[in-house]
Design brief:
five-stranded antiparallel sheet, alpha+beta, Beta-Lactamase, 10 helices, Profilin-like
């Protein structure tokens, strides 16, 4: 009877063994499928995260470009004020500019009452009246190179002799630094006059200005001899702060060509970025190992310096925490849904295989009970019928 029951490829016993093999194979396939689903979900999350990072860096780069443009625009505006003052001082020095018709209170203050210079005064008054029509308040100081006479508007505080409590004459200090700057850079004064060159220097503390104040100046000549200057000042710290777009997440600072901080954020991560970004391309964000992302702008106009941006990893993650959380939640939900569907399908398949196996076992018991009853042909027919019904 055992031989009869087990004979043939479609016997109930062989069908039971085949169902068991199929069940084991489906378990292995399901495990592989679940693993692939998890890998796919993680890969999708990684790709989405990288896309988000790339978009974030592009936004930062656009904001950095806008900031550089704003700083250059502010410096150019102050340069325009200085150029106007220099041209008027040249005309006045050549006797081509008379006393302007004074309107209202727009007139320069004399900072040396013991000595006057009419041509310098005329140039200062004309420049202030002309520039006061614009939207920006002009800041100018005119004076002789020997500091014997000077007129200004909004440059120094409105004290008559420009002396601080220690008796330091800031007008003499200004004249000294103008000439010392040209000497330190090996600039001939007559060449500077002919080229109408604009020069910049960082205001020394003795002038009493903000620590991040820069002074721009030009000189003019009379009878082929340098004799007077015109100067303006700009607070680079304020310019940098006002130029930062609201969307920018990076810390920003302005450094001079030698790497000295001029204005902006004095955080340690900005100095670290300046040190490690010095070699390499400018204008693009680069990865700094152990730090995060950073960028170094192209030199600002008049070679004042360059802007350095620092975006540490922790700050970038903090800024993108909402997007990262959404990506994580969506990846978890999608992956969990796929696994749940797979578990349901596996459970249903297992139940089906178990039901078929149980049916074959019932057939097995029934066929064994028929041992000795009927001929072999009837028993084989019953076995084939049972296998067909349970298959």
């Amino acid at each position: 009877m055992e031989r009869l029951f087990a004979s043939g490829q479609d016997s109930p016993l062989e069908m039971l063994r085949m169902l068991e093999r199929n069940l084991k194979r489906e378990r292995r396939i399901f495990s592989v499928a679940v693993g692939l689903l998890i890998v796919a979900a993680l890969s999708a999350a990684i790709v989405t995260g990288l896309t988000l990072l790339n978009t974030s860096l592009k936004r930062e780069q656009e904001a950095a470009h806008l900031m550089t443009t704003n700083v250059n625009a502010a410096i150019s505006a102050q340069q325009g004020i200085l150029t106007t003052g220099r041209l008027l001082l040249e005309l006045s020095g050549q006797g081509l500019l008379g006393a302007p018709a004074r309107k209202g209170g727009d007139r320069c203050v004399a900072y040396r009452r013991d000595h006057s210079e009419t041509r310098v005064q005329f140039a200062c008054d004309e420049a202030i009246q002309l520039l006061a029509r614009g939207s920006r308040t002009p800041t100018l100081q005119f004076g002789l190179l020997d500091a014997s006479a000077s007129y200004g508007y909004g440059f120094f505080p409105a004290d008559a002799n420009v002396r601080d409590t220690n008796g330091v004459d800031r007008l003499a200090i200004l004249s000294h630094w103008i000439q010392a700057t040209m000497a330190a850079r090996d600039i001939d004064q007559l060449d500077a006059v002919r080229e109408r060159r604009t020069m910049w220097f960082k205001a020394p503390p003795t002038l009493g200005f903000h620590a991040h104040t820069f002074i721009a100046f030009s000189i003019v000549a009379k009878d082929d001899q340098p004799y007077a200057f015109v100067a303006t000042r700009i607070d680079l710290d304020r310019v940098v702060a006002d130029s930062i777009p609201e969307s920018m997440e990076s810390d920003a600072a302005l450094f001079d060509p030698q790497g000295e901080l001029l204005a902006g954020d004095a955080a340690a991560n900005v100095f670290y970025a300046e040190k490690h970004l010095r070699p390499g391309p400018t204008g693009v964000f680069r990865w700094i190992p152990g730090h995060g992302w950073g960028a170094r702008s192209q030199p600002l106009i008049y070679d004042i310096g360059h802007i350095v941006l620092s975006l540490p990893v922790f700050k970038d993650l903090a800024a993108r925490r909402t997007e990262a959380f959404v990506i994580l939640v969506l990846a978890t939900l999608i992956d969990g849904h796929r696994v749940a569907v797979g578990l349901r399908d596996r459970r249903l398949a297992g139940r089906d295989l178990a039901a078929r196996g149980q049916g074959l076992r019932v057939c097995d018991v029934g066929l064994r009970d028929q041992q000795g009853e009927g001929d072999g042909r009837h028993r084989r027919d019953d076995a084939e019928f049972c296998a067909a019904r349970c298959g």
